[in-house]
């Protein structure tokens, strides 16, 4: 099964200069808890923005660069978005985790969206795709606050 996990603001901004716009410990913990032991699918720039290869996860990196290589058994390099569609029918959960273009291309194939919605309007240079919420129903909604940052955990499931 393919799912999405993302943190975005009210304007759907994800990040700027290849960095997240926020550092919210509870959001990072949620990402870890949800993806631990699973596969995470991302574009090359998102992969390179990680502090390290995340433990106990398979990293599937999408890049057009045919010479791109990571010599680590926890990393699989693919060159087309279509190459990850094999995971949509798998009983094992895989999580699309960025960036904006990868989200846009894989959103139609994802069953659940695990979103952290930050209630703010920072400008970004990378955006989550707008999606028709009538195609989903909310299965989780929890409001939180970190310092002066208000945010919600919202999980959507496809109808």
UniProtKB/TrEMBL annotation:
Keyword NADP appears in the UniProt entry: yes
GO BP term, pick one: folic acid metabolic process
Gene Ontology CC entries for this record: cytosol
Pathway of action: Cofactor biosynthesis; tetrahydrofolate biosynthesis; 5,6,7,8-tetrahydrofolate from 7,8-dihydrofolate: step 1/1
Domain DHFR stretches: 1-159
Record-linked Pfam families: DHFR_1
Keywords: NADP, One-carbon metabolism, Oxidoreductase
An example Gene Ontology molecular-function term: dihydrofolate reductase activity
EC number assigned by the record: 1.5.1.3
Origin: domain of life: Bacteria
Enzyme class: oxidoreductase
Catalytic activity: (6S)-5,6,7,8-tetrahydrofolate + NADP(+) = 7,8-dihydrofolate + NADPH + H(+)
InterPro entries, sorted: DHFR, DHFR-like_dom_sf, DHFR_dom
SUPFAM superfamilies attached to this UniProt entry: Dihydrofolate reductase-like (SSF53597)
UniProt family annotation: Belongs to the dihydrofolate reductase family.
Role summary: Key enzyme in folate metabolism. Catalyzes an essential reaction for de novo glycine and purine synthesis, and for DNA precursor synthesis.
Name of this protein: Dihydrofolate reductase
UniProt organism field: Clostridium autoethanogenum
């Amino acid at each position: 099964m393919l799912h999405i996990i993302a943190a975005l603001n009210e304007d759907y901004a994800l990040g700027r200069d290849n960095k997240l716009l926020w550092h919210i410990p509870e959001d990072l913990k949620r990402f870890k808890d949800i993806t631990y032991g699973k596969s995470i699918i991302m574009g090359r720039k998102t992969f390179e923005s990680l502090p390290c290869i995340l433990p106990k996860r398979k990293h599937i990196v999408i890049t057009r660069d045919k010479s791109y290589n990571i010599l680590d058994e926890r990393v699989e390099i693919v060159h087309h978005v279509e190459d990850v569609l094999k995971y949509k029918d798998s009983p094992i959960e895989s999580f699309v985790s960025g960036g904006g273009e990868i989200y846009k291309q894989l959103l139609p194939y994802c069953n659940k969206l695990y979103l952290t919605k930050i209630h703010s309007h920072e400008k970004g240079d990378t955006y989550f795709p707008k999606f028709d919420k009538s195609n989903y129903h909310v299965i989780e909604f929890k409001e939180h606050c970190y310092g002066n940052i208000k945010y919600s955990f919202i999980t959507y499931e496809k109808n």
